Amino acid sequence: xxxxxxxxxxxxxxxxxxxxxxxxxxxxxxxxxxxxxxxxxxxxxxxxxxxxxxxxxxxxxxxxxxxxxxxxxxxxxxxxxxxxxxxxxxxxxxxxxxxxxxxxxxxxxxxxxxxxxxxxxxxxxxxxxxxxxxxxxxxxxxxxxxxxxxxxxxxxxxxxxxxxxxxxxxxxxxxxxxxxxxxxxxxxxxxxxxxxxxxxxxxxxxxxxxxxxxxxxxxxxxxxxxxxxxxxxxxxxxxxxxxxxxxxxxxxxxxxxxxxxxxxxxxxxxxxxxxxxxxxxxxxxxxxxxxxxxxxxxxxxxxxxxxxxxxxxxxxxxxxxxxxxxxxxxxxxxxxxxxxxxxxxxxxxxxxxxxxxxxxxxxxxxxxxxxxxxxxxxxxxxxxxxxxxxxxx
Length: 393
Prior knowledge:
The chain is α+β, with helices and mostly antiparallel strands and 393 residues long.
């Protein structure tokens, strides 16, 4: 698709612009020229993962995924779409709130001890292909890690320089439920650029809108033309179709009140009988933020380091106090995770901690489904139907 030339009508920001696959190539080049480390989806090890992109050719053109509880498979598509695939095993948390951070190191030389704080000097990230649900997850982590009294300097430093390029979802996975959480599939939050991918009889193209001053500057460097009605309508129809094609949904109820009112439900015993307490759900969740610290030394004992590591409330030692763990059973640990994610997160941070990405369902080795568990708890609170004597459970 050719750039707008002199004499043509300039793209109207309210309507957005349209670019072809060549525009995506230029976009990555422009971002790298501006000093950004571009991170986006690419195919590696039979999965679509997030990694540094050196060119747009590394995007997963023509690849999709098949998802279900405890199941993830890469599949070839019949078109050349790059972003028609649901959330993979990683989220942008991997780059903004990394799993391992060295906080300081210490060296002993005789009686002298030197302590050196480790400065975190991350690259300037440009995140290409952020899903609307993951954009909401970034907002939630902003509130948790920079919005309170205990600001995380590592997260704040990485987040402050990050450019967010959102791609609206047009093909959700079987485990997606962002619509019922109000987080997608359309972009409803602040970012720098929004793209919607279209591939139809008129060709493969992107409807692009600038959402920030820098986003508009970048857009001005791309080979774009004024957005036409057919492209806009096709893009909006794709997003609307995704909203109707969600594979999962949360029950239509006040989830915060549901969690508070079902602490003694027998369903917790049922899920505890299946849960391996492996913590996979917390590792892949884009909003889980808990960490622990680990001190290590070399064999001489003269060099020591302190590392900050991701932690999980499913770890038996997570609630360890003098005398033993507070949450010793798998029942209590799963209940803690779910009631915090859907319930008490509201009390701490003013919103739900779940964005409906479905990762916890896909990457649970035994296929525990958060929407199924919430629905079961909701059913338990309902009175029995007239004329029946069944005990809810």
